[in-house]
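Quick illustration, no need to memorize.
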Amino acid sequence: MTIDVTVLRVFTDADGRFGNPLGVIDAATVTADDRQRVATELGYSETIFIDLPNDGSTTARARIFTPATELPFAGHPTVGAAWWLNDRGTPVHTLQVPGGLLQISYDVQISYDEALTVVRARAEWSPEFALHELASVDELLATEPADYPDDIEHYLWAWLDRNGGHIRSRMFATDLGVPEDEATGSAAARLTDFLSRDLTITQGKGSQIYTTWNSEGWVLIAGRVVSDGVRQLN
């Protein structure tokens, strides 16, 4: 059976460049037992399988897989899923993943000049990350995944503009089968909660993530999404 995979790039810059590739699949087309194999074969940092909402429902369910394992929650797959559901004409208010119930908003302006897709999540739903503040962006860009142990995910960051809340970051997750991730919403949520402030994050080669902090433990994760079309997998 041929599987249709919509390929998105999540957290692009304002010109639609960069962003983290994501495979989006209608869960009805792949059995639960086969989803890890499909995610491994696709090779994206995450692939999300979505149970489409019933007629009149404003909630969808989804499960997220890296090439190596299933995750209870991740940022770029859930932002991408929210965008995809809206693009196909079935927007939702909430998205249920194993980690928790996400609130979804579309075309929201928070503290930026344009409307973005937003998910509202709890920081503790994210995987544990070792957070490493580096002294400079040059030091950050000079690091390699092999410089860090491969038994935990590492989020490296340095200030670009401390007063403006703008940071530069990278993420290494060899244990998840992702040596370096281009844009990581769950790590952004962890860092936002750790610093207790809103952030603009430039990660990887130039992806853009925007977060808003809440003192009760909620973080808004926002970004742009573009589609690179449909890929078919046998």
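Residues 75-87 form the longest helix (13 residues).
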